[in-house]
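Annotators were shown the component list below and the corresponding predicted structure, then asked to write short factual statements about the assembly.
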Amino acid sequence: MSFWNDPLKVAADWLMGIFTGWGMPELAANILIGFLGVLILISILMVLDIFLVWVERKVVSRFQDRIGPNRVGPFGLIQPFADIIKLLIKEDTTPGGADRVVYNLAPMLSMMSVLILWAVVPIAPTILGVDINIGVLYIVAAGAIGTLSIIMAGWSSNNKFATIGAFRQVAVMISFEIPMLAMMLIPTILAGSMGTSQIIEQQSVWYFFLSPLGALVFLIAAIAELGRAPFDMAEGESELVSGYNIEYSGMKFGMFYAGELLHAFTFGGFWSIMFFGGYRFFGLEQVSPFLAIAILVFKAFLGYWLIMWVRYTLLRIRIDHMLAFNWKFLTPLAFTLIIVTAFMNALLSGTSTWLYISGMFLSNVLIAWIALEIARSYSRKEREKIQGPKPVVEAAHH
Amino acid sequence: MNPWIFVGLFFVVGLIIPVSAIVVAAILNPKKSNPIKKTTYECGIETVGESWIQFKAQYYIFALVFLIFDVETVFLFPWAIKLGQLGMFAVLEGIVFILILVAGLVYTWRKGMLEWA
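Structure shown to annotators:
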Protein backbone atom coordinates (compact mmCIF):
# COMPACT_ATOMS: atom_id res chain seq x y z
CA MET A 1 0.00 0.00 0.00
CA SER A 2 1.95 2.99 -1.23
CA PHE A 3 1.07 6.67 -1.11
CA TRP A 4 0.16 6.69 -4.80
CA ASN A 5 -2.45 3.94 -4.40
CA ASP A 6 -4.25 5.18 -1.33
CA PRO A 7 -2.97 8.64 -0.32
CA LEU A 8 -5.68 9.30 2.27
CA LYS A 9 -5.11 6.14 4.31
CA VAL A 10 -1.29 6.39 4.17
CA ALA A 11 -1.34 10.00 5.30
CA ALA A 12 -3.90 9.24 8.04
CA ASP A 13 -1.83 6.28 9.33
CA TRP A 14 1.33 8.38 9.30
CA LEU A 15 -0.33 11.20 11.25
CA MET A 16 -1.91 8.67 13.61
CA GLY A 17 1.56 7.29 14.42
CA ILE A 18 2.83 10.79 15.19
CA PHE A 19 -0.16 11.85 17.31
CA THR A 20 -0.34 8.64 19.35
CA GLY A 21 3.43 8.91 19.78
CA TRP A 22 2.76 12.21 21.55
CA GLY A 23 0.49 10.35 23.94
CA MET A 24 -2.79 11.56 22.45
CA PRO A 25 -5.89 9.37 22.96
CA GLU A 26 -7.01 7.61 19.78
CA LEU A 27 -10.38 9.39 19.48
CA ALA A 28 -8.79 12.85 19.82
CA ALA A 29 -6.15 11.90 17.25
CA ASN A 30 -8.86 10.69 14.86
CA ILE A 31 -10.81 13.92 15.22
CA LEU A 32 -7.65 16.01 14.72
CA ILE A 33 -6.74 14.05 11.57
CA GLY A 34 -10.31 14.49 10.30
CA PHE A 35 -10.12 18.20 11.03
CA LEU A 36 -6.85 18.53 9.10
CA GLY A 37 -8.27 16.55 6.18
CA VAL A 38 -11.42 18.70 6.03
CA LEU A 39 -9.31 21.86 6.30
CA ILE A 40 -7.12 20.79 3.37
CA LEU A 41 -10.12 19.84 1.21
CA ILE A 42 -11.94 23.10 1.92
CA SER A 43 -8.78 25.16 1.33
CA ILE A 44 -8.36 23.48 -2.05
CA LEU A 45 -12.00 24.27 -2.78
CA MET A 46 -11.50 27.93 -1.90
CA VAL A 47 -8.49 28.15 -4.24
CA LEU A 48 -10.58 26.43 -6.92
CA ASP A 49 -13.32 28.97 -6.22
CA ILE A 50 -10.90 31.83 -6.95
CA PHE A 51 -10.02 30.10 -10.19
CA LEU A 52 -13.74 29.70 -11.00
CA VAL A 53 -14.18 33.48 -10.89
CA TRP A 54 -11.64 33.72 -13.71
CA VAL A 55 -13.23 30.79 -15.63
CA GLU A 56 -16.70 32.29 -15.40
CA ARG A 57 -15.57 35.72 -16.56
CA LYS A 58 -13.50 34.30 -19.40
CA VAL A 59 -16.32 32.04 -20.61
CA VAL A 60 -18.99 34.75 -20.45
CA SER A 61 -16.67 36.99 -22.44
CA ARG A 62 -16.34 34.39 -25.16
CA PHE A 63 -20.11 33.88 -25.29
CA GLN A 64 -20.60 37.63 -25.63
CA ASP A 65 -17.84 38.02 -28.21
CA ARG A 66 -15.43 39.79 -25.87
CA ILE A 67 -11.94 38.92 -24.66
CA GLY A 68 -12.46 39.19 -20.91
CA PRO A 69 -9.81 39.85 -18.26
CA ASN A 70 -6.41 39.86 -19.97
CA ARG A 71 -4.36 42.60 -18.28
CA VAL A 72 -3.33 41.21 -14.86
CA GLY A 73 -0.97 38.29 -15.32
CA PRO A 74 -0.95 35.80 -18.24
CA PHE A 75 -4.47 35.52 -19.72
CA GLY A 76 -5.69 37.64 -16.80
CA LEU A 77 -5.12 34.73 -14.39
CA ILE A 78 -4.11 37.01 -11.51
CA GLN A 79 -7.27 39.11 -11.91
CA PRO A 80 -9.34 37.25 -9.23
CA PHE A 81 -6.53 37.81 -6.69
CA ALA A 82 -6.66 41.53 -7.45
CA ASP A 83 -10.43 41.32 -6.94
CA ILE A 84 -9.94 39.69 -3.55
CA ILE A 85 -7.58 42.47 -2.43
CA LYS A 86 -10.17 45.00 -3.56
CA LEU A 87 -12.95 43.19 -1.65
CA LEU A 88 -10.79 43.03 1.48
CA ILE A 89 -10.03 46.75 1.61
CA LYS A 90 -13.46 47.95 0.44
CA GLU A 91 -15.62 49.80 2.93
CA ASP A 92 -18.41 47.63 4.26
CA THR A 93 -21.65 49.55 4.72
CA THR A 94 -24.59 48.19 6.63
CA PRO A 95 -27.97 49.89 6.15
CA GLY A 96 -29.17 51.63 9.28
CA GLY A 97 -32.42 49.69 9.56
CA ALA A 98 -30.87 46.28 9.06
CA ASP A 99 -31.13 43.42 11.53
CA ARG A 100 -27.39 43.25 12.16
CA VAL A 101 -27.04 39.69 13.51
CA VAL A 102 -29.07 38.07 10.72
CA TYR A 103 -27.49 40.40 8.14
CA ASN A 104 -23.96 39.32 9.05
CA LEU A 105 -24.81 35.65 9.43
CA ALA A 106 -26.38 35.27 5.96
CA PRO A 107 -23.21 35.42 3.77
CA MET A 108 -21.40 33.00 6.07
CA LEU A 109 -24.25 30.49 5.89
CA SER A 110 -24.41 30.94 2.11
CA MET A 111 -20.76 29.88 1.76
CA MET A 112 -21.09 27.14 4.39
CA SER A 113 -24.08 25.55 2.66
CA VAL A 114 -21.89 24.98 -0.39
CA LEU A 115 -18.77 23.80 1.44
CA ILE A 116 -20.62 21.19 3.52
CA LEU A 117 -21.95 19.62 0.30
CA TRP A 118 -18.43 18.29 -0.31
CA ALA A 119 -18.72 16.02 2.73
CA VAL A 120 -20.57 13.49 0.57
CA VAL A 121 -18.70 13.94 -2.73
CA PRO A 122 -16.68 10.82 -3.56
CA ILE A 123 -13.56 12.36 -5.12
CA ALA A 124 -11.84 9.04 -5.84
CA PRO A 125 -12.55 5.38 -4.96
CA THR A 126 -10.72 5.70 -1.65
CA ILE A 127 -11.04 9.44 -1.06
CA LEU A 128 -14.40 10.41 0.37
CA GLY A 129 -15.35 12.76 3.18
CA VAL A 130 -18.10 10.72 4.77
CA ASP A 131 -19.78 7.62 3.41
CA ILE A 132 -23.20 8.22 4.98
CA ASN A 133 -26.04 6.06 3.72
CA ILE A 134 -28.37 9.02 3.15
CA GLY A 135 -26.00 11.03 0.94
CA VAL A 136 -28.71 12.12 -1.50
CA LEU A 137 -30.97 13.49 1.24
CA TYR A 138 -27.96 15.24 2.78
CA ILE A 139 -27.45 17.18 -0.48
CA VAL A 140 -31.05 18.43 -0.31
CA ALA A 141 -30.76 19.27 3.38
CA ALA A 142 -27.57 21.27 2.80
CA GLY A 143 -29.30 23.08 -0.06
CA ALA A 144 -32.04 24.11 2.38
CA ILE A 145 -29.41 26.02 4.38
CA GLY A 146 -28.61 27.96 1.21
CA THR A 147 -32.31 28.83 0.81
CA LEU A 148 -32.37 29.92 4.43
CA SER A 149 -29.37 32.20 3.92
CA ILE A 150 -31.18 33.92 1.03
CA ILE A 151 -34.30 34.51 3.14
CA MET A 152 -32.07 35.86 5.91
CA ALA A 153 -30.18 38.18 3.55
CA GLY A 154 -33.31 39.48 1.87
CA TRP A 155 -35.31 40.03 5.02
CA SER A 156 -32.56 41.49 7.21
CA SER A 157 -31.37 44.07 4.65
CA ASN A 158 -34.53 46.13 5.26
CA ASN A 159 -34.72 46.94 1.58
CA LYS A 160 -37.72 46.45 -0.69
CA PHE A 161 -35.68 45.14 -3.61
CA ALA A 162 -33.95 42.64 -1.35
CA THR A 163 -37.20 41.48 0.24
CA ILE A 164 -38.94 40.94 -3.10
CA GLY A 165 -35.85 39.17 -4.45
CA ALA A 166 -35.81 36.84 -1.48
CA PHE A 167 -39.53 36.03 -1.89
CA ARG A 168 -39.02 35.12 -5.50
CA GLN A 169 -35.87 33.14 -4.93
CA VAL A 170 -37.48 31.11 -2.17
CA ALA A 171 -40.60 30.44 -4.26
CA VAL A 172 -38.40 29.23 -7.12
CA MET A 173 -36.13 27.16 -4.92
CA ILE A 174 -38.88 25.34 -3.08
CA SER A 175 -40.79 24.76 -6.32
CA PHE A 176 -37.88 23.31 -8.27
CA GLU A 177 -36.77 21.25 -5.32
CA ILE A 178 -39.63 18.83 -6.07
CA PRO A 179 -38.44 17.74 -9.55
CA MET A 180 -34.83 17.75 -8.35
CA LEU A 181 -35.62 15.53 -5.39
CA ALA A 182 -37.75 13.32 -7.64
CA MET A 183 -34.90 12.95 -10.12
CA MET A 184 -32.56 11.98 -7.30
CA LEU A 185 -34.94 9.04 -6.77
CA ILE A 186 -33.95 7.60 -10.15
CA PRO A 187 -30.28 6.87 -9.31
CA THR A 188 -31.56 5.66 -5.93
CA ILE A 189 -33.94 3.20 -7.61
CA LEU A 190 -31.29 2.03 -10.08
CA ALA A 191 -28.45 1.71 -7.54
CA GLY A 192 -30.58 0.58 -4.60
CA SER A 193 -28.83 3.04 -2.31
CA MET A 194 -28.85 6.69 -1.31
CA GLY A 195 -25.10 6.80 -0.61
CA THR A 196 -23.19 8.76 -3.26
CA SER A 197 -20.27 6.30 -3.32
CA GLN A 198 -22.70 3.37 -3.69
CA ILE A 199 -24.38 5.12 -6.62
CA ILE A 200 -21.01 5.41 -8.37
CA GLU A 201 -20.03 1.82 -7.56
CA GLN A 202 -23.24 0.54 -9.17
CA GLN A 203 -22.83 2.56 -12.37
CA SER A 204 -21.20 0.03 -14.65
CA VAL A 205 -23.55 1.59 -17.21
CA TRP A 206 -23.86 5.36 -16.85
CA TYR A 207 -27.34 6.19 -15.60
CA PHE A 208 -27.54 8.78 -18.36
CA PHE A 209 -28.13 5.89 -20.78
CA LEU A 210 -30.81 4.40 -18.53
CA SER A 211 -32.53 7.72 -17.89
CA PRO A 212 -31.51 10.52 -20.26
CA LEU A 213 -34.69 12.45 -19.53
CA GLY A 214 -34.01 12.17 -15.80
CA ALA A 215 -30.56 13.71 -16.30
CA LEU A 216 -32.08 16.56 -18.30
CA VAL A 217 -34.83 17.31 -15.76
CA PHE A 218 -32.26 17.18 -12.97
CA LEU A 219 -30.07 19.71 -14.78
CA ILE A 220 -33.01 22.11 -15.34
CA ALA A 221 -34.09 21.83 -11.71
CA ALA A 222 -30.49 22.25 -10.53
CA ILE A 223 -30.08 25.46 -12.57
CA ALA A 224 -33.24 26.81 -10.93
CA GLU A 225 -31.97 25.74 -7.52
CA LEU A 226 -28.74 27.61 -8.17
CA GLY A 227 -30.73 30.73 -9.02
CA ARG A 228 -28.94 31.17 -12.33
CA ALA A 229 -30.29 32.51 -15.60
CA PRO A 230 -32.81 31.79 -17.10
CA PHE A 231 -34.19 31.29 -13.58
CA ASP A 232 -32.44 34.19 -11.80
CA MET A 233 -35.58 36.10 -10.87
CA ALA A 234 -34.09 36.97 -7.49
CA GLU A 235 -31.36 39.03 -9.12
CA GLY A 236 -33.20 40.47 -12.11
CA GLU A 237 -30.93 43.48 -12.74
CA SER A 238 -33.51 45.35 -14.78
CA GLU A 239 -36.16 45.34 -12.07
CA LEU A 240 -34.63 44.39 -8.71
CA VAL A 241 -31.16 45.85 -9.37
CA SER A 242 -29.40 42.99 -7.60
CA GLY A 243 -32.08 41.26 -5.57
CA TYR A 244 -31.45 39.73 -2.19
CA ASN A 245 -27.78 40.78 -1.94
CA ILE A 246 -28.34 44.42 -2.94
CA GLU A 247 -27.21 45.95 0.37
CA TYR A 248 -24.10 43.81 0.71
CA SER A 249 -20.66 45.12 -0.11
CA GLY A 250 -17.05 44.12 0.34
CA MET A 251 -16.23 40.60 1.49
CA LYS A 252 -19.81 39.84 2.47
CA PHE A 253 -20.92 40.29 -1.11
CA GLY A 254 -17.85 38.31 -2.17
CA MET A 255 -19.08 35.38 -0.09
CA PHE A 256 -22.42 35.34 -1.93
CA TYR A 257 -20.68 35.61 -5.28
CA ALA A 258 -18.05 32.96 -4.59
CA GLY A 259 -20.67 30.72 -3.00
CA GLU A 260 -22.83 30.90 -6.12
CA LEU A 261 -19.94 29.95 -8.42
CA LEU A 262 -18.80 27.07 -6.26
CA HIS A 263 -22.42 25.93 -5.93
CA ALA A 264 -22.72 25.76 -9.72
CA PHE A 265 -19.48 23.80 -10.00
CA THR A 266 -20.59 21.46 -7.20
CA PHE A 267 -23.87 20.76 -8.95
CA GLY A 268 -21.93 20.03 -12.14
CA GLY A 269 -20.12 17.47 -10.00
CA PHE A 270 -23.34 16.02 -8.60
CA TRP A 271 -24.78 15.77 -12.08
CA SER A 272 -21.78 13.75 -13.18
CA ILE A 273 -21.93 11.60 -10.03
CA MET A 274 -25.61 10.76 -10.43
CA PHE A 275 -25.80 10.26 -14.17
CA PHE A 276 -22.28 10.08 -15.62
CA GLY A 277 -20.45 7.70 -13.34
CA GLY A 278 -18.57 10.26 -11.23
CA TYR A 279 -14.87 9.36 -11.15
CA ARG A 280 -15.42 6.23 -13.29
CA PHE A 281 -14.15 6.17 -16.84
CA PHE A 282 -13.65 2.70 -18.44
CA GLY A 283 -11.57 1.41 -15.52
CA LEU A 284 -9.09 4.31 -15.63
CA GLU A 285 -10.07 5.21 -12.05
CA GLN A 286 -8.44 1.99 -10.80
CA VAL A 287 -5.01 3.06 -12.09
CA SER A 288 -4.46 5.84 -9.60
CA PRO A 289 -6.66 7.88 -7.25
CA PHE A 290 -5.11 11.01 -8.71
CA LEU A 291 -6.37 10.04 -12.17
CA ALA A 292 -9.83 9.47 -10.65
CA ILE A 293 -9.75 12.99 -9.18
CA ALA A 294 -8.79 14.39 -12.58
CA ILE A 295 -11.68 12.51 -14.24
CA LEU A 296 -14.21 13.79 -11.68
CA VAL A 297 -12.96 17.38 -11.96
CA PHE A 298 -13.09 17.17 -15.75
CA LYS A 299 -16.68 15.88 -15.70
CA ALA A 300 -17.68 18.48 -13.12
CA PHE A 301 -16.21 21.21 -15.34
CA LEU A 302 -18.17 19.86 -18.31
CA GLY A 303 -21.39 20.05 -16.25
CA TYR A 304 -20.44 23.53 -15.03
CA TRP A 305 -19.71 24.62 -18.59
CA LEU A 306 -23.15 23.38 -19.69
CA ILE A 307 -24.76 25.38 -16.86
CA MET A 308 -22.82 28.47 -18.03
CA TRP A 309 -23.82 27.84 -21.63
CA VAL A 310 -27.51 27.79 -20.64
CA ARG A 311 -27.01 30.89 -18.51
CA TYR A 312 -25.53 33.03 -21.25
CA THR A 313 -27.76 31.78 -24.05
CA LEU A 314 -31.31 31.93 -22.70
CA LEU A 315 -33.32 34.95 -21.64
CA ARG A 316 -34.76 35.40 -18.17
CA ILE A 317 -38.22 33.89 -17.68
CA ARG A 318 -41.02 35.74 -15.84
CA ILE A 319 -41.79 34.46 -12.32
CA ASP A 320 -45.34 33.25 -13.07
CA HIS A 321 -44.17 31.44 -16.23
CA MET A 322 -41.38 29.89 -14.26
CA LEU A 323 -43.62 28.57 -11.50
CA ALA A 324 -46.20 27.39 -14.05
CA PHE A 325 -43.41 25.62 -15.97
CA ASN A 326 -42.42 23.82 -12.80
CA TRP A 327 -45.82 22.86 -11.41
CA LYS A 328 -47.65 22.18 -14.66
CA PHE A 329 -44.87 20.61 -16.70
CA LEU A 330 -41.74 19.58 -14.83
CA THR A 331 -43.36 18.11 -11.70
CA PRO A 332 -45.92 15.91 -13.51
CA LEU A 333 -43.17 14.87 -15.93
CA ALA A 334 -40.84 13.98 -13.06
CA PHE A 335 -43.45 11.82 -11.34
CA THR A 336 -44.41 10.10 -14.60
CA LEU A 337 -40.73 9.37 -15.11
CA ILE A 338 -40.39 7.82 -11.64
CA ILE A 339 -43.41 5.60 -12.24
CA VAL A 340 -42.11 4.45 -15.63
CA THR A 341 -38.54 3.97 -14.37
CA ALA A 342 -39.66 1.89 -11.39
CA PHE A 343 -41.99 -0.17 -13.59
CA MET A 344 -39.53 -0.77 -16.42
CA ASN A 345 -36.75 -1.52 -13.95
CA ALA A 346 -38.83 -4.23 -12.29
CA LEU A 347 -40.06 -5.53 -15.65
CA LEU A 348 -36.67 -5.77 -17.36
CA SER A 349 -34.36 -6.52 -14.42
CA GLY A 350 -34.11 -10.25 -15.24
CA THR A 351 -33.43 -9.81 -18.96
CA SER A 352 -30.18 -9.30 -20.88
CA THR A 353 -28.17 -6.13 -20.42
CA TRP A 354 -28.75 -4.79 -23.92
CA LEU A 355 -32.52 -5.30 -23.72
CA TYR A 356 -32.51 -3.60 -20.29
CA ILE A 357 -30.55 -0.56 -21.47
CA SER A 358 -32.47 -0.10 -24.71
CA GLY A 359 -35.82 -0.59 -22.96
CA MET A 360 -35.02 2.03 -20.35
CA PHE A 361 -33.60 4.44 -22.93
CA LEU A 362 -36.49 4.13 -25.37
CA SER A 363 -39.14 4.48 -22.64
CA ASN A 364 -37.45 7.78 -21.66
CA VAL A 365 -37.38 9.01 -25.23
CA LEU A 366 -41.07 8.11 -25.60
CA ILE A 367 -42.05 10.06 -22.45
CA ALA A 368 -40.03 13.06 -23.61
CA TRP A 369 -41.77 13.00 -26.99
CA ILE A 370 -45.27 12.71 -25.44
CA ALA A 371 -44.52 15.51 -22.95
CA LEU A 372 -43.28 17.81 -25.72
CA GLU A 373 -46.33 17.05 -27.88
CA ILE A 374 -48.70 17.86 -24.99
CA ALA A 375 -46.84 21.11 -24.30
CA ARG A 376 -46.89 22.01 -28.00
CA SER A 377 -50.62 21.43 -28.46
CA TYR A 378 -51.34 23.36 -25.24
CA SER A 379 -49.30 26.35 -26.36
CA ARG A 380 -50.96 26.23 -29.81
CA LYS A 381 -54.37 26.40 -28.10
CA GLU A 382 -53.22 29.34 -25.96
CA ARG A 383 -51.87 31.13 -29.02
CA GLU A 384 -55.14 30.65 -30.90
CA LYS A 385 -57.05 32.06 -27.94
CA ILE A 386 -55.10 35.31 -28.34
CA GLN A 387 -54.51 35.52 -32.09
CA GLY A 388 -57.51 33.59 -33.39
CA PRO A 389 -57.22 30.35 -35.39
CA LYS A 390 -54.41 30.00 -37.85
CA PRO A 391 -55.57 31.24 -41.31
CA VAL A 392 -56.10 28.42 -43.81
CA VAL A 393 -53.64 28.51 -46.69
CA GLU A 394 -55.44 30.22 -49.60
CA ALA A 395 -53.65 28.38 -52.36
CA ALA A 396 -55.33 25.10 -51.42
CA HIS A 397 -58.76 26.34 -52.59
CA HIS A 398 -57.83 27.70 -55.98
CA MET B 1 -15.75 6.20 14.60
CA ASN B 2 -19.12 7.82 14.02
CA PRO B 3 -19.20 9.30 10.47
CA TRP B 4 -21.39 12.16 11.65
CA ILE B 5 -18.38 13.56 13.55
CA PHE B 6 -16.86 14.26 10.11
CA VAL B 7 -20.07 15.95 8.98
CA GLY B 8 -19.82 18.11 12.10
CA LEU B 9 -16.20 18.92 11.20
CA PHE B 10 -17.34 20.03 7.74
CA PHE B 11 -19.86 22.36 9.38
CA VAL B 12 -17.20 23.80 11.70
CA VAL B 13 -14.50 24.31 9.04
CA GLY B 14 -17.10 25.44 6.49
CA LEU B 15 -18.09 28.20 8.89
CA ILE B 16 -14.54 29.12 9.98
CA ILE B 17 -13.33 29.90 6.44
CA PRO B 18 -16.00 32.51 5.49
CA VAL B 19 -15.99 33.96 9.02
CA SER B 20 -12.21 34.46 8.90
CA ALA B 21 -12.44 36.07 5.45
CA ILE B 22 -15.09 38.50 6.67
CA VAL B 23 -13.19 39.24 9.90
CA VAL B 24 -9.96 39.98 7.99
CA ALA B 25 -11.93 42.30 5.71
CA ALA B 26 -13.49 43.99 8.75
CA ILE B 27 -10.01 44.67 10.17
CA LEU B 28 -8.51 45.97 6.92
CA ASN B 29 -11.33 48.06 5.47
CA PRO B 30 -11.77 51.79 6.05
CA LYS B 31 -14.56 52.88 8.38
CA LYS B 32 -15.93 56.23 7.32
CA SER B 33 -19.62 55.82 7.91
CA ASN B 34 -22.15 58.61 7.90
CA PRO B 35 -25.97 58.72 8.11
CA ILE B 36 -26.38 59.27 4.36
CA LYS B 37 -24.33 56.17 3.57
CA LYS B 38 -26.41 54.08 5.94
CA THR B 39 -29.73 54.85 4.26
CA THR B 40 -31.53 52.11 2.38
CA TYR B 41 -30.65 51.95 -1.31
CA GLU B 42 -33.64 52.61 -3.54
CA CYS B 43 -32.24 54.04 -6.80
CA GLY B 44 -31.66 57.47 -5.25
CA ILE B 45 -35.12 58.07 -3.83
CA GLU B 46 -35.72 58.04 -0.10
CA THR B 47 -37.59 54.97 1.11
CA VAL B 48 -41.31 55.51 1.60
CA GLY B 49 -42.88 53.58 4.45
CA GLU B 50 -41.86 50.25 5.88
CA SER B 51 -39.39 48.09 3.94
CA TRP B 52 -40.65 44.87 5.46
CA ILE B 53 -43.60 44.68 3.12
CA GLN B 54 -46.45 42.20 2.99
CA PHE B 55 -45.77 39.32 0.67
CA LYS B 56 -48.09 38.06 -2.02
CA ALA B 57 -50.45 35.35 -0.78
CA GLN B 58 -49.59 33.26 -3.85
CA TYR B 59 -46.17 32.44 -2.38
CA TYR B 60 -47.94 30.89 0.61
CA ILE B 61 -50.01 28.60 -1.63
CA PHE B 62 -46.89 27.41 -3.43
CA ALA B 63 -45.22 26.76 -0.09
CA LEU B 64 -48.20 24.61 0.97
CA VAL B 65 -48.10 22.56 -2.24
CA PHE B 66 -44.34 22.21 -1.85
CA LEU B 67 -44.75 20.88 1.69
CA ILE B 68 -47.02 18.03 0.56
CA PHE B 69 -44.74 16.96 -2.28
CA ASP B 70 -41.55 17.30 -0.26
CA VAL B 71 -42.84 15.00 2.47
CA GLU B 72 -44.13 12.61 -0.17
CA THR B 73 -40.77 12.39 -1.91
CA VAL B 74 -38.98 11.76 1.38
CA PHE B 75 -41.37 8.86 1.96
CA LEU B 76 -40.51 7.51 -1.47
CA PHE B 77 -36.78 7.18 -0.74
CA PRO B 78 -37.03 4.04 1.48
CA TRP B 79 -39.30 2.53 -1.17
CA ALA B 80 -36.77 3.34 -3.89
CA ILE B 81 -33.87 1.72 -2.02
CA LYS B 82 -35.59 -1.63 -1.48
CA LEU B 83 -37.32 -1.69 -4.85
CA GLY B 84 -34.90 -4.19 -6.39
CA GLN B 85 -35.65 -6.78 -3.70
CA LEU B 86 -39.40 -6.32 -3.34
CA GLY B 87 -40.57 -7.12 -6.87
CA MET B 88 -43.52 -6.00 -8.92
CA PHE B 89 -46.06 -5.76 -6.08
CA ALA B 90 -44.08 -3.03 -4.28
CA VAL B 91 -43.68 -1.16 -7.56
CA LEU B 92 -47.44 -1.09 -8.09
CA GLU B 93 -48.00 -0.06 -4.45
CA GLY B 94 -45.58 2.83 -4.91
CA ILE B 95 -47.27 3.86 -8.15
CA VAL B 96 -50.65 3.97 -6.36
CA PHE B 97 -49.08 6.14 -3.64
CA ILE B 98 -47.64 8.56 -6.24
CA LEU B 99 -50.95 8.70 -8.14
CA ILE B 100 -52.88 9.62 -4.96
CA LEU B 101 -50.54 12.56 -4.44
CA VAL B 102 -50.62 13.57 -8.09
CA ALA B 103 -54.41 13.72 -7.61
CA GLY B 104 -53.65 16.41 -5.01
CA LEU B 105 -51.70 18.34 -7.65
CA VAL B 106 -54.56 17.97 -10.13
CA TYR B 107 -57.00 19.26 -7.48
CA THR B 108 -54.80 22.29 -6.81
CA TRP B 109 -54.51 22.90 -10.54
CA ARG B 110 -58.28 22.65 -11.17
CA LYS B 111 -58.95 24.99 -8.24
CA GLY B 112 -56.84 27.57 -10.05
CA MET B 113 -54.31 27.83 -7.23
CA LEU B 114 -51.36 27.45 -9.60
CA GLU B 115 -52.39 30.56 -11.54
CA TRP B 116 -50.53 33.76 -10.73
CA ALA B 117 -53.54 35.93 -9.92
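Statements collected:
1. Chain B touches chain A through 71 residues (CB under 8 Å).
2. Helices of chain B lie at 3-28, 57-81, 83-86, 88-110.
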